[in-house]
Amino acid sequence: MQNAQATEWSWWRRVSIRAKMQIGVLGFALLLLVICATTLTVMANLYFHQKMRQDLQMLSKVLAENSGAALTFNDAASAGKVLSALKENASVEAAALYQNGDAKAFAEYPQHGAAVGLAAMAGKDGVWLRQEFYVTSTPVKVNEETVGYLVLKSNLQEWDRFKQKLLSLFLVLIGGMLALTLLVSYWLKSHITQPLASLSEWAMQVSKHKDFNARASKRNEDEIGHLVDSLNVMLSELARQETIVSLNRELEWEIQERKVVEKDLIATRNRAEEANKAKSRFLANMSHELRTPLNAIIGYSEMLQEVVAEDDYEREEILDDIGKVRSAGKHLLSLINDILDISKIEAGKMQISIEAFSMEDLVDEVAGALRLLADERRNKLVVRGAGEVGVVHSDLVKVRQILFNLLSNAVKFTQDGVVELICERESADGEDWMLCRVRDTGIGISASAIKELFRPFSQADPSTTRRYGGTGLGLAISRSYATMLGGEISVTSKEGEGSEFCIRLPTTAEIHGPEERIVGGETVAPKPPLAASDTPTPASNAMTGARLLLIDDDPTVHDILKHQLNKHGFLVSSAHSGAEGLTLAKQEEFDVIVLDIFMPGQDGWQVLQMLKSDAATAHIPVVMHTIESNAQKGYALGASDFLVKPINGARLLSILQRFQKKDTGMKVLYVDDDVHSLELVRAYMHGTGWNLIMAEDGREGLEKLSQNPDVSMILLDLIMPEMNGFEFLEQIRRNEKTADTPVIVISARDLTQAERSLLRQHTQAVLRKGMYDKSALLSRIKEVLEERMPVS
What we know:
Layout: H1 2-8, H2 10-14, H3 17-72, H4 76-84, E1 92-99, E2 105-109, E3 126-130, E4 133-142, E5 145-155, H5 157-209, H6 223-239, H7 241-310, H8 316-347, E6 352-358, H9 359-376, E7 380-384, H10 386-389, E8 391-394, H11 396-412, E9 418-428, E10 431-440, H12 447-450, H13 462-468, H14 474-484, E11 488-494, E12 498-506, E13 516-518, E14 547-551, H15 555-566, E15 571-575, H16 578-587, E16 592-596, H17 604-613, E17 622-626, H18 631-636, E18 641-644, H19 649-656, E19 667-671, H20 675-684, E20 691-695, H21 698-707, E21 711-716, H22 725-734, E22 743-747, H23 753-762, E23 765-768, H24 774-788
Helix pairs in contact: 3-4, 3-5, 7-8, 7-15, 8-14, 9-11, 11-14, 16-17, 21-22
């Protein structure tokens, strides 16, 4: 089919461009003329016939009005005179006047018998086109009474004359169009087709004689001129083909050489990657090997301190010596942690965990941990403006570490001076920022040393290390953390007068990538302090008899934790491998399991997964403890809490107290109209031992609350039908029986300042839907309950 069409149109392809353009212009002009002529003829026809109808109707009405008296008095002569007025209108061929109900003409025009055939139209009212003439019939009325009819017959001679004029006009237009086409064709030939023909002839000569030095002449600066330039440039390039071929051969030889070099580079890169992997494995193994004995040193020194203190030894220097051993172990552990952190940062494996926290609480915590050191060096520690910053969404651990590093440096390098921490919140480019300035009146830093200040293992001066200690990693880690959180750290200093470090971080960090985990909440749960007290807090009576399973391959850990926990009423069972721990967990009833991660055979992750996948053990809370922090993985697999070795006794006990049996059977009421949210919280609370009561609006929630007066906690949405969350709050706060029941609001609503103030007065926390996970919700519930629990 395509070949047939190509053969059929082959003649058109052989037509010259000039002829094609002339045919195209002429064809377009004729098509346009035909369209215009057709449109004009149709519109003229419509206009003429419409005007003809209107003129006949008007003429007929005038004659009918003038003929009324003649018909009334039966005066045919007067009627004839009225019709004789039609002599002035050449288009009217005949006219007749009929009396009402009489088919015989009363009067005729132009002569008797001229109105043959018009009698049939009498008795009608209107205008009709009959082949070559128009007929109109109009009633003759006298005093609104029809006495007869006037019938007119008009020819179409005027329309014939008008058509003759249109035809003459069209012939003139066609002649003018042909003349214009010839002029356009001549112009196109001079400016387009002739230059193209010349260029085609030149190209054929170049192709025939292979003369690549020939150049086409350029006439104009239009597209044809640009084509000439392009062809000339192409010929210049063709003239260089031999040179290019020669260069290609040389390049091919160089490429072969580079491929050999590339292979060597790939082999070198592979060796470097293997070396990096070996370094990572070495650091992981060494961190385990170093932290394990350090854990034992710190743990046993804590035990010795307790034993010496309980036995009332008179030699207090023994307590001091043991304290020095423990302090040295902690210092060495912090150095190892810094080295591992900088290695993770350089390898790009440092994890970010974003959550909401109060900057005021964090600053108080950091400053409280450093006040003792500040007092020892006789420094005045001043904190201002932390409350103005408010709630920050960022990585709590890393912001705490940044503040602690900078503030501890300021305290360490200042004596008998002032150390200030000034916090403020500012807006720039539509984004809120948190500024923390750490100022001191210490030794200061020289301008040359500032350039090397943030490099790993570097300090302002070598003598600084000998006098003040340290590895030079704190500032490098702090700047890396600030960069990861979308901020920066800057420094200004004058040697001998002091320094100022400025931390600038976004109040809402935006970290993108696979390492991110976002935890939401508008009120902030209290966080563990940087340094817990060395003396464990005594356990409550409710802890007596609580059964604990310790799974760890290190006998030292068993000795230390048994010593610490047995004194506080725990019954500790030991398992030295994952398999042994799984067996014991299924055979006996335990209130909580403490699980190590790095063990031979089955590691802690595998054991945790098997515990949570078995219905017999899934309900048992599991506290992970290990030398390396990977809390997010632990929470994802179902761990209840996470501790990093060496474990502080007070911190461990405070966590274990959350899993007392007295929480079993506690009732939690969740009021929300969203079925998906209800099912999600139900899944979160599965295995906790809590009884979840669900209601789909505020009114149903009040009914469930009256049926269950022993509800310990209420989770509440704000936007619901029937009765919303604010109305529900008002109702329960008015009731004496429910006024003190703690409430945590879980809502997606954007709160106004007034609503926030109201909720702060009547609720314990506000969580935003979609911005919290299982661990955050359960931890917040436990913390609220612990805050309201009476102290025994």
